[in-house]
Amino acid sequence: MSARHNPPALFSLCGGHPALDFINTLDDRFSARGPVERLPDYGALLRFAEQARVLEPRNARRLAQGGPGGRERALRSARQLREALATALYARADGRAVPAGALGTLERYLHRAARHRELSSRRGGALRWSWGRSRSRAELPVWLLALSAGELMMSEKLQRVRTCRADTCRWLFLDTSRNHTRRWCDMKVCGNRMKARRFQARHQP
Question: In angstroms, rounded to a whole number, what is the distance separating the alpha carbons of residues 42 and 34?
């Protein structure tokens, strides 16, 4: 089923981690009407990566001003990475084994990101990773998101990844509540909606 396009001016970043907010850019993923694609074009990908703070504003401006070469490929790559990550995390949330295909895709993008980083030296001799000649490559936001996903998947944070309990939502979020009992991606949206439904059900004649 093809995704509906209905991009917002800004993205909701209630996931608590860039990789989770990235997955949530395919909205209504489990809706019978079909999902809503929040990354309909390369510009939306840049806006998301900047808002999620994985891409620096100056790099976002540079990529936005660049030529069209590679943009469509980068957008396809971003969506492929997102869906592999979604497959892996929803499988884990549902108590299923992560499919080998999803792991293979994640591994491929992590390798690509690693290949394009360069080791550089700061003043005083300290070393750091930088993007060097790859700063102007259209796939830079994809590589940054891949590294963010890898950081999450290989950290203790993974144990706190939850799905929104609203059946029509199921957005992913990082449960950082004191007792790890958070149930909703956003209490003001899904939490209040589900409370209203339960209230209506209790008071129906």
Answer: 22
